[in-house]
Amino acid sequence: MKQHALAIAFGAALCVPPGARAYEIGFPYYDAVVEMHVNIAGSSPSGARWNTAFAEAARRWDSDADVRIDPVSQYSDPCAGVVPLTVNDPRNGVAFRDDLCGFSFDEDTLAVTLRMFQLYSDASIVEADIVFNDNVTWDVYDGALRPGRPDFRRVATHELGHALGLEHEDDVPALMNSAISGIDAPNDDDQSGVSALYGALAA
Predict the structure, then answer these.
(1) pLDDT tens, 93-121?
(2) pTM to 2 decimals?
(3) 3 state SS for the chain
């Protein structure tokens, strides 16, 4: 029987900002295809549909690394199997919620990635669920941050970095910094971390 442990990753785009090789990696996802089940109704104030913005966030991780993220247009509760801790729902779910699986969000938390690990010598992520704080006024845009209106797409891109196995990196500017910033897509440091975890696709 497989043993699992739950780890909660608070991602770079999870928090509002405060008044060389630098990337940080953990364990990879167990498969070369990370399926994320997402079916969020409606659109942002700027008119972008939430599902479309999430799919665009997934594509921002496209690279020559031997891994890809595939959004699946189907709802899966990101908290199923988390509280209580079980392994009865192995699908990766994505949703807006006004709580974190029964717990209150910190006032500065935008989103959280919940990861479940397989505990073996080749430890890997077997489930990665993303919960977006529904108490926040979200929008979708690129470029500079807009006060009081965080960009859903860049936060989703950051959280998907955690699903791939990246940790926070605060020594250099990167999407995986521990606070949201003007960086809205993976940069060279972020992509180098993915390549270090998965290697390049065979030619």
Answers:
(1) 999 999 999 999 998 999 999 998 887 76
(2) 0.88
(3) CCCEEEEEECCHHHECCCCCCCCCECCCECCCEEEEEECCCCECCCCCEHHHHHHHHHHCCCCCECCEEEEECCCCCCCCCCCCCCCCCCCEEEEEECCECCECCCCCECEEEEEEEECCCCCEEEEEEEEEECCCCCECCCCCCECCECEHHHHHHHHHHHHHCECCCCCCCCCCCCCCCCCCCCCHHHHHHHHHHHCECCC
Pairing of strands 111-118, 124-133: antiparallel
Encoded tokens for 202: 């065979």
For residue 71, the 8-state DSSP code is E
Beta bridge partners of 115: 7, 128
The two three-digit tokens of residue 43, written as one number? 């659109």
CB of 28 within 8 A of CB of 69?
A: no
